[in-house]
Amino acid sequence: MGEDSRAGIEYLRGDATAPQGKGVKVIAHVCNDLGGWGKGFVVALSRRWPAPEAAYRRWHRERSGNDFGLGAVQLVQVERYVWVANLIGQRGTRTGRSTGAPVRYEAVDSALARLGEHALRLGASVHMPRIGCGLAGGRWELVEPLVTARLTDRGVPVTVYDHD
Questions:
Q1: I need a surface site. Which of 32, 81, 123, 152 has the fewest CB within 10 A?
Q2: CATH C-level class of 4-162
Q3: Can you give the residue ranges of the Macro domain (predicted)?
Q4: CA neighbours within 13 Å on the CB side: how many for 91?
Q5: Is the pTM of the predicted complex or chain greater than 0.90?
Q6: What's the CA gap between 92 and 118, in Å, rounded?
């Protein structure tokens, strides 16, 4: 089917905002905990659908009364069979002087566990870029086992897209 399959994850070249396959699909990506949206994968998401950004910004703005924070997940339906999952897995953003990556692996792990519940309930497959590894500065060899444990080992099909 795909170009490569390791640990139950299918790897494809392509665009994660145009997920392949049939059925219900959830596009997962990592957001920061500051309410910032505007660089990286979210730019492509917002070009296709304005709803995930609007929902994320509202979620952050109203955070005193909701679960917004590291490890949380927000599901936004963008088409009949397509959802976007905003995963809060990044503490702040990288600035010129900061050291260390903003990704928080334990938050990504918690968010993926919650995402797994949603995906199983929806009967959905999950589609993503190499989450936490772009602007969040994480390493895929640390994220991949979390994706495997929280999603594929529980029977959720996962496709990871590498942009050309």
A1: 123
A2: alpha beta
A3: 1-164
A4: 9
A5: yes
A6: 26
Q: Write the pLDDT tens digit of every residue in 54-97.
A: 999 999 999 999 999 999 999 999 999 999 999 999 998 877 66
Kindly report the three-state secondary structure assignment for every residue of the chain. Answer: CCCEEECCEEEEECCCCCCCCCCCEEEEEEEECCCCCCCCHHHHHHHHCCHHHHHHHHHHHCHHHCCCCCCCEEEEEEECCEEEEEEEEECCCCCCCCCCCCECHHHHHHHHHHHHHHHHHHCCEEEECCCCCCCCCCCHHHHHHHHHHHCHHHCCCEEEEECC
Residue written as tokens 């795909």?
Answer: 2
Q: Tell me the two tokens of residue 6.
A: 């390791």
